Sequence to fold (358 residues):
Amino acid sequence: MKALIAAGGHATRLRPITSTTNKHLIPLANKPMILLALEKVLEAGIRDIAININPGDRSIQSVVGYGDKWGAHITYLEQQGGALGVAHVVANARTFLGNDPFLFYLGDNILLGSLKQMVERFTEENLDCMLALSRVRDPQRFGVPVFENGSIVRVEEKPENPVGNLVQTGFYLYRSSFFEAFQNIKPSARGEYEISDINTWLIQRGYRLGWEEISGYWKDTGKPEDLLHGNQLLLNELEAGADAIRGEVHPLSVLQGNVHVGKGTVIGQNVLIRGPVTIGEDCVIENAYIGPYTSIGKGVKVLNTEIEHSIIFDGVHLECGKRIVDSLIGFNAKVVSSNASLPLGHKMIVGDNSVVEI
Fold:
């Protein structure tokens, strides 16, 4: 079996972060999302993997490499023809996939459970298509399966009036019949080849479809609050242990709960950290409070600042004398006090699509 991970797109709802950073490289619990997806594919026993990327984008390769460290082989496929829908991503990989069965994984989906059982069932039952389903509060954002007598008879993409709250997640298993379906569907009203139309076509032509309600938590990280929620859940999964503290901690500072501190990081005086929290390598934390569900990248300085329930990317400098909550702060950004220079006031360089609360 092969795997295809989708890691393209432009993630406009996450700008300005994604104006300069591929969404799939956003760190959750200090690990780029693309590596979280790759781990799930490898756990399912798949080693021949392609990653779909935007034309000209080399950022994913620089982080993931070509699979040697995992005993895998990773191929990179540039998306051709523009953004024409999720099903078109698979069609773009036709040469790589050939006639082999494959797992299609949307790389911005966060899964705490395992896909191994789903893959095994797909193989053992000789299914043509296998869907991973989950219950959500906003099914109108997803593909919603319609059931009759316990079987799926079609899948409706983003319906205005969903028949239920069980939806398609970003994990699919197919055989080469996918490409027959693709040749027979047309773009939707929004101009995209919908994966829901692929699944409906296969069902209505008598192909064998299976489904499972996935175990563990699943999240589609389309919005900033989704990233923060995903980060929170992954931090809950961190393993506590004697080797969790690899940096220096001042004897008068206090670490409570599950806290991970990277090598070369110095936790100075007057610091309180309440886990779950992960702090990367070579950071400096002084006169600060780090609250639960915060992940801090490498080379970060946090001075005279409180922060909680936030994602701090590498190279950030925080020294503002304020409390920061529910925030995403991108690579090498700086947040400092308005009292640091004259005249007093809030001085800003705010890019397109930014959100600032003062």
The chain has two domains: 2-236, 242-340. The mean pLDDT is 88. The radius of gyration is 22 Å. The longest strand covers residues 166-174.
